[in-house]
Amino acid sequence: MEFAINHICTPKKSLEEFFEMTKALGCTKVEIRNDLPDVVGTRTPEEVKAAAEAAGIEILSINALYPFNVWSGDLPERAVAMADYAAACGAKALVMCPLNDGSEVAFDDIVEALKAMKPILDVRGLTGLVEPLGFPISSMRKKATAIEAIKAAGGEDTYKLMHDTFHHHLASEDEFFPEWTGLVHISGVNDPAIAVDDMLDDHRVLVDGADRLENISQIKALIAAGYTGPFSFEPFAAEVHDLADGQAALAESIAYIKGQL
């Protein structure tokens, strides 16, 4: 299996330090972000592309366009700007997350948003990685819903799924769609006291033997079903971000996962 590293793993590292760490871990693929840390808002795409090329790094995606399924306000403008940035920096895809504030979004609105986003992505040669969020307050929790909407929008050649092991578990999903999956996010939750419905991004750590999200079984199922793409680490917990040696922690998690397969 192949691993990728999301900049959220070590958000205190500069872009160049992050790329250097990724190579030291034996990886060549990364995801950059527009939040933690805000690479998109602080570095020009030309700088990012040059740094990636110098390090021999491939940028899989930019995280994330939010909320992609509410196509109003400044979202169209932000979508174009992010797509322009992705194309200029050499990224292959944009991660697209649905509204997550307890509001409902009609299925037809999801379809219309995907239709509107499709030409923006297509003209720039980008893939849209649609990521259902499993939180109880999410407006799109299930991967099957995302696939149905993509088909209704005629977006089969534009969109792929982001399978996130955390959100898969929170949504109580049991279906895997390897042929639709463009990338997989992996993270663990090892706090034994937190109820599943109360799990938040802040609880997401690196995958280890105490993981409650069944990452290993999910990874095995995806591989057995034919998924051959990368598995990208995406921990949001401050305890991971504050580690004195994030590289060593990632190396340990990589070794644990490989040892379980």
Q: What's this model, at a glance?
A:
This protein is 39% helix and 16% strand. With 261 residues, the chain is α/β, with parallel strands linked by helices. β4, α5 and β5 (127-130) form a beta-alpha-beta unit.
Helix-strand layout with pairing:
Elements: E1 2-6, H1 15-24, E2 29-33, H2 39-42, H3 45-55, E3 58-65, H4 75-89, E4 93-96, H5 107-122, E5 127-130, H6 143-152, E6 159-164, H7 165-170, E7 181-186, H8 215-224, E8 230-233, H9 238-241, H10 246-260
Fill in the keyword field for this structure:
alpha/beta; globular; eight-stranded parallel barrel; 16% strand; TIM Barrel; 261 residues; single chain; 10 helices
Could you say which structural class the secondary elements and strand pairing correspond to?
alpha/beta
What's the gyration radius in Å? 17 Å
Major sheet description: 8 strands, parallel, barrel
- Note the gap between the termini: 9 Å
CATH superfamily: Divalent-metal-dependent TIM barrel enzymes
Q: Please state the average pLDDT score.
A: 98
Helix and strand succession?
EHEHHEHEHEHEHEHEHH
Q: Uncertain runs with pLDDT below 50, 5 residues or more?
A: none
CATH architecture identity: Alpha-Beta Barrel
Number of separate structural domains: 1
